Amino acid sequence: MKSVALLLAAAAQGVLSHTIFTQLNGNAVGYAIRDPSYDGPIQDVTTNDIACNGGPNPTTPSSAKITVAAGSTAKLTWRHTLTSDATDVIDSSHKGPVMAYMKKVSNAVTDVGYGSGWFKIASDGFSNNAWGVDRLIANAGVQTVTIPSCLAPGDYLLRGEIIALHAASSQGGAQFYMECAQITVTGGSGAKSPATVSLPGAYKATDPGILINLYYPTVTSYTPPGPAVFTC
């Protein structure tokens, strides 16, 4: 009965608190980020919207790019809404991994986002009895990732992602939150090319990191979906 009550509570909370990747490296909200007008999730991993959002959450185009040096850290700020502060990141019930991907593109402003070319640069899943989302909330919604130093310079999309698993015990219940920032990477050595995946394509609704019951049995280990993190 306890697990049923937890599931019902999670379902109720699912409509109350979503999240958006709103800022990169302290720039203005929405600057060089394809932010949506609504903070809702994508739940169908087969749609093009799984790459950079859109569809039920229409995104606003941006003509800007942010320059980021290879080997430096990038700070992605997450908020419940475009106007929320650091005390309102995402509901704590929305437990799950926090990840980041990149995609090399000819022009970060005009690239559609979906399709091949994506590689993972960061992944915070479940460790020390806490989820990536728990650590994100504790860090006031700031996700810090390192831009690999061995990448070729040029334009990229930087995709922040949270997968909320509070309702993921049924297929299609996992909630994917993602936005794409438009960046230009400078100073990269180009010494190594990452293996890439396609979005959509990298995830299946039945992947064990997507179809999972958080409440029973107790989670003791977890592998986030998608490829391994690329390292130089």
How is this structure best described in words?
With 232 residues, this protein is mostly beta strands. Helices cover 10% and strands 29% of the residues. It is built from three helices and eleven strands, in the order αβαββββββαββββ. It has helices spanning 2-14, 49-52, 132-138; strands at residues 20-24, 66-69, 73-79, 98-104, 115-124, 126-127, 130-131, 142-146, 154-164, 175-186, 197-199. A six-stranded mixed β-sheet has the order 2-10-9-4-5-11. The protein has a three-stranded antiparallel β-sheet with strand order 1-3-8, with no helix packed on it. A two-stranded antiparallel sheet has the order 6-7. A hairpin with a 2-residue loop joins strand 6 (126-127) and strand 7 (130-131). The chain is globular, with a radius of gyration of 17 Å. It starts with a helix and ends in a 33-residue tail after the last strand. The model is unreliable at 1-15 (pLDDT under 50).
